[in-house]
Amino acid sequence: xxxxxxxxxxxxxxxxxxxxxxxxxxxxxxxxxxxxxxxxxxxxxxxxxxxxxxxxxxxxxxxxxxxxxxxxxxxxxxxxxxxxxxxxxxxxxxxxxxxxxxxxxxxxxxxxxxxxxxxxxxxxxxxxxxxxxxxxxxxxxxxxxxxxxxxxxxxxxxxxxxxxxxxxxxxxxxxxxxxxxxxxxxxxxxxxxxxxxxxxxxxxxxxxxxxxxxxxxxxxxxxxxxxxxxxxx
Length: 233
Description:
The protein is an alpha+beta fold.
């Protein structure tokens, strides 16, 4: 899901999983509108990309939830791109797959294009653990400071983590994926890495965030993320 203001250029790109769609859409709307001035020029534009004809019809359900959530907004929102479910579906040997798995946007030109992300950014296991333990939609980027603020996150020990780490790839796909036949090749290794992280940090308040402060990153001159000490902010 991508929401942008054609007036201010403010852009929000996120992945929605259907856990609390109305709350997520309201949060996205507030984030984009916070960067728009009060003159009211331009318009809010939404682009929906993703999902496919999965066996459980979860993509269709999520698409309907997103359309309803935007329809309930008091602001006018213009649907510009609609590449979802059967419009983003391909079939191979009687198995359905998405055509586009992910998108990116050039915030200077507003160009949207299909994208994959070999580099996942700082603290991938930490951010994934936050999601796997049931976190709601979380904004990690401070656009005004141009910094990533990750955490502090807190969770309870992940139930049966040793059991899941002992399972083979097929069991992890069948039980920890909503679309086991359509996952990208790295899915299982990603889940195993996240589970290992959760095993190593059952109490993040002690091992990761004892000072209750976020991990802060800023891009250096080479365009790479580097950690910044909190006392320098």
